[in-house]
């Protein structure tokens, strides 16, 4: 019970740190909230005390400490000239652009965007499924919203251009980096890097599009990790039914395709929304790079699908496939029919 109480305390500290960072009006309060979130997440990260988790936890702590130091240094530059930690007071400082580089670099390092993406696959490859889910969803919440605050306040062309270049390169890294990956965790890490490029680029148009994309990304990630967790239970219980494994594999491939943005799945709707909004800003080259990264990610996802069809459908009948219907069908319903419904709504709204 003592260990369980400490576990609840760490979860509470992680959630409280994120909420405190988002709701703060001072750079010092944002930094404190990010540090509280880090202190609460690290014990959850190394809860099973394995060698791989300890190595991933050490790498994550070092990178997050470097990101916090960049963030603190940029805010100290602002404080040395304005004598205030207020966010809005940075506009009165005519040399505030020199600190924007440090602030953006610290936040980009925390979410693992280009060119600070080097740590993300190695950290994620040694973590359990729950820690991976938290790393690609909840731990990115506060830095993304802080980046959105900076994008709303600062309306300078070269800052916008820098964000667009880093976002498009993140999409390319996420697409090309996952080609030679054989581990699912590393594949999901590069997929997260690519999706961060789409999320941050959507901020160039509006924060509303970013929230829609990020919400859909969280829903797809929850469905995907639910299937992965269920697959581990099946293997641990010794359920060697070929039909059950068939349905789990098919569910994983369909969720990967949804994460890659294959129409008419749910992930395609999020990318279509960003594509339409950014296309109105005449950012054609950046859109082209984002689409190229998505095509490369769909390349190895579709390769998995082709291998699945060749190896499986010669050994099983369609009658057995329909008998394998189970609880994972809810996950498929959310990603397939949810994408169709949102596509119909967007079509009727366009008309």
Automatic annotation (TrEMBL):
InterPro entries: Complex_I_Subunit_2 (IPR050175), NADH_UbQ_OxRdtase_chain2 (IPR003917), ND/Mrp_TM (IPR001750). The chain crosses the membrane at residues 7-25, 60-81, 93-111, 118-138, 214-234, 246-270, 282-313, 325-345. It is found in: Mitochondrion inner membrane. Its EC number is 7.1.1.2. GO terms for biological process: mitochondrial electron transport, NADH to ubiquinone. Keywords: Electron transport, Membrane, Mitochondrion, Mitochondrion inner membrane, NAD, Respiratory chain, Translocase, Transmembrane, Transmembrane helix, Transport, Ubiquinone. Its main location: mitochondrion. Signal peptide: none annotated. One of its GO terms (molecular function) is NADH dehydrogenase (ubiquinone) activity. This is NADH-ubiquinone oxidoreductase chain 2. It comes from Cipangopaludina ussuriensis (Freshwater snail). The gene is ND2.
């Amino acid at each position: 019970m003592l260990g369980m109480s400490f576990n609840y305390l760490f979860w509470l500290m992680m959630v409280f740190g994120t909420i405190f960072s988002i709701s703060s009006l001072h750079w010092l309060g944002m930094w404190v909230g990010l540090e509280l979130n880090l202190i609460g997440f690290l014990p959850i990260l190394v809860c099973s005390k394995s060698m791989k988790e300890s190595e991933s936890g050490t790498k994550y702590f070092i990178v997050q400490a470097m990101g916090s130091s960049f963030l603190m240094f940029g805010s100290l530059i602002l404080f040395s000239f304005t004598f205030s930690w207020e966010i809005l007071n940075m506009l009165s400082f005519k040399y505030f652009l020199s600190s924007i580089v440090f602030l953006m670099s610290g936040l980009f390092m925390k979410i693992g965007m280009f060119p600070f993406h080097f740590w993300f696959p190695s950290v994620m490859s040694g973590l359990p499924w729950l820690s991976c889910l938290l790393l690609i969803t909840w731990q990115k919440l506060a830095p993304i919203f802080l980046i959105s605050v900076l994008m709303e306040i600062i309306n300078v062309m070269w800052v916008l251009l820098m964000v667009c270049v880093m976002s498009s390169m993140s999409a390319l890294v996420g697409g090309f980096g996952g080609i030679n990956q054989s581990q699912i965790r590393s594949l999901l890490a590069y997929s997260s890097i690519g999706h961060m490029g789409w999320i941050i680029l959507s901020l160039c148009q509006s924060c509303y599009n970013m929230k829609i994309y990020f919400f859909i990304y969280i829903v797809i990630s929850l469905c995907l990790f639910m299937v992965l967790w269920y697959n581990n239970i099946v293997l641990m219980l010794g359920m060697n039914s070929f039909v059950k494994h068939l349905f789990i594999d098919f569910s994983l491939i369909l969720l990967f395709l949804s994460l890659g943005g294959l129409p008419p799945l749910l992930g395609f709707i999020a990318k279509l929304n960003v594509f339409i909004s950014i296309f109105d800003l005449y950012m054609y080259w950046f859109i082209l790079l984002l689409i190229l990264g998505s095509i490369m990610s769909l390349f190895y996802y579709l390769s998995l699908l082709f291998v699945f069809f060749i190896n499986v459908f010669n050994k099983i009948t369609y009658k057995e496939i329909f008998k394998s219907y189970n609880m994972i069908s809810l996950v498929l319903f959310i990603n397939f029919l949810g994408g169709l419904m949102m596509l119909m709504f967007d079509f009727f709204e366009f008309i």
